[in-house]
């Protein structure tokens, strides 16, 4: 009995050691949380569902609350802490303050074991003393802040740069609502592959499995699931794909005659959800799906095969580099450009720590470069869709304004999406703010190249 108990303690400690390794990679390598977690689970497929849920919760919770946790640590310790020890403190403190499934003494004990394993006895003693001091003396109401604005930013782990960028564009009250919305995750959204199934039948399939499935009122071919089924047969057979509601609106925003044979170019296609969706909605057309990364191209090809999509061609191509053979060859072009990602902070909380004005200005140069290249590939009377997963006006409306000023042969075109509550807020523009809907923030603009 004693041996079995010790074995369970070791397994639990290893689970928290996994959390430490994942967080260290995210913080040290500037890695995306979702990709890091997915790669980890692929390599460690023996981890059971319960432990996966625990690992995921602690990883995301620690990242989301990082500034607040750091501030508390700073209040209780004036000494500089090594990065790897800081990660242990952050993940342990998150569990102590925000989770109640494990007794505090057990959290501290496992933090001590990990810190001793990676950095020796001195660090483990420091971790033990600091966490016990916080448990004994911490009171959220006694933490001092310079003013109410600083209090709001730190308690919601919102960096100053991000706060003031949003405040300048949306005002204080709206900015606070947007930042508070970052503390929630978007709903589990899947897009039905209409080649193999339909929304009604797939909804019934999930309900038969006792999984609550609600038809999205944002994107007509998306379902919102209360729970995700692990290794689901319908997913494995390509009946649906994981894609956010707002992202799914890009294909619907095109709004052209689906019976016509178009040549469609997706300039920044990876991971391929939008290309695959467009190919599904426009079955008589050919979609040229491009990305500059080789491994991402193979991912698009694999998904196209899985979803049984035949009308897609995948190419390696850097969207910032002009390709002469593409000149005026396409009827429809999608520019889903790289962006700051402010709209997806709900699901990728590490993004908020990267954002500053210089970062955004650099991204804008890339975005405009892609637009300027892509316009040359479009036929007269063709459609160009510009989209981002950010709500930063400089990357959205300001870019479009700058582009139109330079290119007077392009005009804004009305966007109309059937069976969606999302409407234009300006002619040719859709903006989804993350505090108004339980999905990612997003921007879509539709332009038409005028004929002679």
Automatic annotation (TrEMBL):
E.C. numbers: 2.1.1.176
A GO MF term: methyltransferase activity
Pfam families found in the cross-reference section: Methyltr_RsmB-F (PF01189), NusB (PF01029), RsmF-B_ferredox (PF22458)
Keywords, in A-Z order: Cytoplasm, Methyltransferase, RNA-binding, rRNA processing, S-adenosyl-L-methionine, Transferase
Superkingdom of the source species: Bacteria
Keyword Cell membrane in record: no
Active site as annotated: 389
Positions of the SAM-dependent MTase RsmB/NOP-type domain: 178-450
Main location (coarse class): cytoplasm
Residues involved in S-adenosyl-L-methionine binding: 268-274, 291, 318, 336
InterPro entries membership: MeTrfase_RsmB-F_NOP2_cat (IPR049560), MeTrfase_RsmB-F_NOP2_dom (IPR001678), NusB-like_sf (IPR035926), NusB_RsmB_TIM44 (IPR006027), RCMT (IPR023267), rRNA_ssu_MeTfrase_B (IPR004573), RsmB-like_ferredoxin (IPR054728), SAM-dependent_MTases_sf (IPR029063)
Compartments, record wording: Cytoplasm
GO terms classed as biological process: methylation
Keyword Transmembrane: no
UniProt cross-references to SUPFAM superfamilies, sorted A to Z: NusB-like (SSF48013), S-adenosyl-L-methionine-dependent methyltransferases (SSF53335)
Recorded catalytic activity of this chain's protein: cytidine(967) in 16S rRNA + S-adenosyl-L-methionine = 5-methylcytidine(967) in 16S rRNA + S-adenosyl-L-homocysteine + H(+)
The family this protein is said to belong to: Belongs to the class I-like SAM-binding methyltransferase superfamily. RsmB/NOP family.
Biological function: Specifically methylates the cytosine at position 967 (m5C967) of 16S rRNA.
Name of this protein: 16S rRNA (cytosine(967)-C(5))-methyltransferase
């Amino acid at each position: 009995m004693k041996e079995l108990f010790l074995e369970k303690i070791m397994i639990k400690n290893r689970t928290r050691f996994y959390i430490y390794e994942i967080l260290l990679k995210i913080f040290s390598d500037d890695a995306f949380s979702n990709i890091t977690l997915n790669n980890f689970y692929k390599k460690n497929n023996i981890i059971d569902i319960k432990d996966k849920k625990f690992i995921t919760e602690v990883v995301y919770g620690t990242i989301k609350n990082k500034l607040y946790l750091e501030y508390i640590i700073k209040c209780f310790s004036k000494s500089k802490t090594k990065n790897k020890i800081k990660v242990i403190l952050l993940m342990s403190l998150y569990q102590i303050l925000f989770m109640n499934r494990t007794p505090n003494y057990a959290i501290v004990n496992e933090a001590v074991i990990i810190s001793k394993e990676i950095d020796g006895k001195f660090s483990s003693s420091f971790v033990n003393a600091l966490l016990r001091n916080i448990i004994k003396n911490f009171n959220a109401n006694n933490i001092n802040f310079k003013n109410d604005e600083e209090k709001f930013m730190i308690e919601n782990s919102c960096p100053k740069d991000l706060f003031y960028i949003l405040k300048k564009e949306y005002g204080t009250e709206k900015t606070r609502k947007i930042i508070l919305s970052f503390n929630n995750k978007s709903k589990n959204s899947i897009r039905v592959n209409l080649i193999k199934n339909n929304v009604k039948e797939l909804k019934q399939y999930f309900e038969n499995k006792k999984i609550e499935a609600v038809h999205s009122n944002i994107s007509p071919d998306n379902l919102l699931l209360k729970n995700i089924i692990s290794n689901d047969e319908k997913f494995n057979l390509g009946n649906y794909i994981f894609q956010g509601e707002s992202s799914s609106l890009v294909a619907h925003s095109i709004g052209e005659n689906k019976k016509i044979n178009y040549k469609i170019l997706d300039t920044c296609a990876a991971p391929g959800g939008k290309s695959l969706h467009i190919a599904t909605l426009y079955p008589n057309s050919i979609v040229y799906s491009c990305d500059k990364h080789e491994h991402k191209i193979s991912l698009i090809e694999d998904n196209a095969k899985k979803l049984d999509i035949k009308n897609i061609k995948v190419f390696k191509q850097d969207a910032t580099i002009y390709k002469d053979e593409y000149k005026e060859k396409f009827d429809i072009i999608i520019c889903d450009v790289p962006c700051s990602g402010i709209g997806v902070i709900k699901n990728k909380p590490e993004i908020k720590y990267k954002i500053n004005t210089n970062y955004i200005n650099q991204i804008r140069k890339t975005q405009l470069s892609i637009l300027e290249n892509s316009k040359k590939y479009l036929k007269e009377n063709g459609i160009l869709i510009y989209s981002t997963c950010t709500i930063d006006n400089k990357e959205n409306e300001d870019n479009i304004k700058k582009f139109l000023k330079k290119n007077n042969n392009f005009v804004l075109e009305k966007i109309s999406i059937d069976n969606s509550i999302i409407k234009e807020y300006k002619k040719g523009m859709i903006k989804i703010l993350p505090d108004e809907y339980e999905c990612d923030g997003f921007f879509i603009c539709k332009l038409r190249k005028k004929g002679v």
